[in-house]
Amino acid sequence: MLHQFEGLHKLWDTPTNLDYLNKLTKLDLLVIDDFGLMDLDLDKCRDLFEVLDTRDGRKSTVVISQFPVSTWFDMFADNTYADACLTRITDKHHTYRLEMNGINMRETE
User: Fold this and answer.
1) For residue 91, how far is the Cα from the chain centroid?
2) pTM, rounded to two decimals
3) Which of 45, 47, 58, 91 has its CA at 20 to 30 Å from residue 72's CA atom?
4) What CATH number matches the domain at 2-90, 3.30.930.10, 3.40.50.300, 3.20.20.80, 3.10.20.310?
């Protein structure tokens, strides 16, 4: 899902982007899969923050990553956005955290 943020910055103040952000905000459940596979430049930081901020405490968001949460801060190009986004993702009052270790189910025997 995070790849959907790739082009948002090009449309930032356009009705198309605002419509798209509104749709992401209104979803009952938003799944951000493969978080951390790409670094978040400043535009992606802003887009992710906008989505997370408007959903915070109102709608459910699931973030899936192969990387430990302790490494997520370094994926952001901007420390302020990193703090703001990670606070919303990891806030102990609104989140459940599951850490799983095991075999890669995509690997064949």
Assistant:
1) 14
2) 0.76
3) 58
4) 3.40.50.300
Q: Residue range 46-58: average pLDDT?
A: 89
Concatenated DSSP letters of the chain: -GGGGTTGGGGTTSHHHHHHHHHHHH-SEEEE-STTSS-B-HHHHHHHHHHHHHHTTTSEEEE--SS-GGGGGGGBS-HHHHHHHHHHHH-TTT----------TTS--
Which of 9, 80, 72, 7 has the alpha carbon at shortest distance from 37?
72
Q: Is residue 11 within a helix (H) or strand (E), and if so which, with residue range?
A: none
Q: What angle do CA 39, 43, 44 make, to 5 degrees?
A: 45
pLDDT-derived band at 11, boundaries 50, 70, 90:
low
- Give the phi and the psi of residue 90 in degrees, each rounded to 5: -110, 5
Q: Where are the domains of the chain?
A: 2-90
What is the predicted pLDDT for the residue at 109? 59
